[in-house]
Amino acid sequence: MVLNKSVFLKKKIVLGITASIAAYKAASICSRLADMGADVVPVMTPNALNFITPITFSSISGNKTIVEQFANEKKIYHISLSHSADIFLIAPASADTISKLSYGICDNLLATSAVSATCPVLIAPAMNESMYLNPIIQKNILRLRKSGKYFFIGPKSGNLACGEKGLGRLEDEDIIIERLGELLNYSSDLKGKKIVITAGGTREFIDTVRYISNRSSGKMGYALAEEAYFRGAEKVILISTVRNLPQPYGVDVKYVEDSSGMKKVLDKYYSTNDVAVMAAAVSDIIPLKKYNFKLKKKNDILSRISFKENENILKYLAKEKKKNQYLVGFAAESGYNSRDVLEKIKDKNIDMIVANDISREDIGMESDYNEVDIVRQDGAVKKLARDKKRIIARGIWDEIVKSLTER
Ligand code: CTP
């Protein structure tokens, strides 16, 4: 693990411990965070006391472990705690606590403070596999993830406390700490910047039910948007055609269906933005006419459908672009070389293209992974090796920030 320990220095971390055999592992996490200079405030659910004592966490962290919701008449813990924290970690998180958070049930201090938290909450579940895979628990996890405030890490597979083997073990300590560090370790190199990003494949409707689209999942655009927020951007607008991904933390999502809807929203926000990233796969062809009823097969459907080439939004934005704005396009290619990509940059008159090879199944469209070449207008090429889209997003912003500072 490559971990920058200084990330944790003087950071206030609320560590939530719930009822699970894995609660003892939280003591080690607490100790490592405290060693790295974090101010760890342990919070336990009353049931967690059956597994480990609060004294353990108090002595390791140097802070009193809080369990009782109404223990202090002078201080309303749930608000003061969650509003002053840089990050909230719940490890281990039981099915019970996850479900409470999902429904906003606040019948103990841990749940109350996590629900009222204004910082990101990282949840590391630990439970029996059949509990974890229970559709109700999965639905609760999805609800939390979709809200954008809650992040999940693990669980992993292995021996479970109940004697069974399966998915439900608390994720490795190193991985939990690394993810926590990632969520904290955001620089402010996009401070003051207004960003607009597009994501997903457009749906160009033929009639009220049929449309032409592509395989783009929108994951790359979502990862870029979340990263931009964490790097201190003043405002991040994500124009998205997909509705099934968790809403990125801190990002203003505007949902659209087709390229004309996307252009309309861009028209509203583009001129006041500093950086625009066209990660969306905008359809190159659109129906000549959109029927406002469902076409019937018996009415010679094929003769009524025809297509035309779509306007290229990226080119349109390039024409509108002011000197201080930075415009990034994507290129989904079946094999390419950076010279061709550079030609596209010149042709479209944009600042950067992020190119990926869509002929590969292990990266790009629909995948959680990507591998890209970032080509700048001056011909500089940065290759990013295959990695999770979250990490690729970081590399792309690194390059954008570099270009902005060199201007
Ligand atoms: N794009 C756009 N409007 C379109 C089509 C694409 O704004 N009608 C943008 C996409 O958001 C993306 C880039 O253009 O940023 C994609 O370019 P690419 O896939 O290379 O398509 P083209 O430049 O049209 O080239 P090709 O002929 O290879 O399809």
Structure, explained:
- With 407 residues, the protein is α/β, with parallel strands linked by helices.
- The chain has helices spanning 23-35, 54-61, 77-84, 95-103, 109-116, 129-133, 135-147, 173-184, 219-230, 259-269, 301-304, 313-320, 338-348, 389-406, and strands spanning 12-17, 39-44, 87-93, 121-125, 150-152, 156-159, 165-169, 194-199, 204-205, 211-212, 235-240, 252-255, 275-278, 285-287, 307-309, 326-333, 352-357, 369-376, 381-388.
- The protein has two domains: 5-186, Rossmann fold (3-Layer(aba) Sandwich), CATH 3.40.50.1950; 194-406, CoaB-like (Rossmann fold).
- 34% of the residues lie in helices and 24% in strands.
- A hairpin with a 5-residue loop joins strand 9 and strand 10.
- The protein is globular and about 75 Å long.
CATH topology of the largest domain: Rossmann fold
Spatially, the strands of the biggest sheet line up as 12-11-8-13-16-17-18-19
Low-confidence stretches: none
What is the CATH class name of the largest domain?
A: Alpha Beta
Shape by Cα distribution: globular
Report the average pLDDT across residues. 92
Give the count of helical stretches: 14
Largest sheet: 8 strands, mixed
Classify the beta-strand content into a percent band: 15-25%
How many strand units?
19
What bound compounds does this protein have?
A: cytidine-5'-triphosphate
Structure class? alpha/beta
Question: For this structure, what is the CATH homologous superfamily of the largest domain?
Answer: CoaB-like
Total discrete domains? 2
Q: Work out the radius of gyration.
A: 24 Å
CA(first)-CA(last) distance: 34 Å
Give the helix proportion (percent range): 25-40%
User: Do you know the CATH architecture of the largest domain?
Assistant: 3-Layer(aba) Sandwich
